[in-house]
Design brief:
Mean pLDDT: 94
Strand content: 35-45%
Radius of gyration: 14 Å
Order of helices and strands: EHHEEEEEE
Number of helices: 2
Structural class: mainly beta
Number of domains: 1
Number of strands: 7
Low-confidence stretches: none
Shape: globular
Helix content: 10-25%
Distance between the termini: 34 Å
């Protein structure tokens, strides 16, 4: 793999029904901070998608991208199995106390999670 930094791809579009449904589920099943931000969902759109080809999305609220240099906070975190049987992760994160995006990633395989999971497929980390 090259040393090139993968840039986000700006798309500026409404959430799809699948994305909205997943977002609502992640908020409802997240921590207190996630639940306290449920009111933001009505004003959220997709600002950008990941440049690596995965299905991760970053949000805009009222058309303004949720960006910060201060890092992110994971507020809802789950696992799922891909169609190929590989374990994947999916989390909702905030930036500066605003819903900021949904990240999907692979655990232990080279498979790129190129579609967001259905909420019915999500399960918690085992403790």
């Amino acid at each position: 793999m090259s040393d090139q930094v993968l840039k986000e791809r700006i798309v500026e579009r409404p959430l799809t029904e699948k994305e909205r449904s997943l977002l609502i589920w992640l908020v409802d099943n997240g921590n207190k901070e996630a639940k306290s931000l449920k009111h933001e969902i009505e004003n959220i759109s997709v600002y950008s998608v990941c440049g690596c080809g995965c299905a991760s999305i970053d949000f805009a609220i009222d058309g303004n991208p949720v960006k910060s240099n201060s890092g992110m906070t994971v507020v809802s975190d789950f696992l799922y199995d891909s169609e190929k049987g590989n374990q994947m992760g999916c989390f909702l994160f905030t930036v500066d106390k605003h819903l900021a995006g949904i990240e999907v990633y692979s655990l232990g395989s080279n498979e790129i999670p190129d579609v967001l999971p259905l909420q019915q497929k999500l399960y918690p980390f085992k403790t």
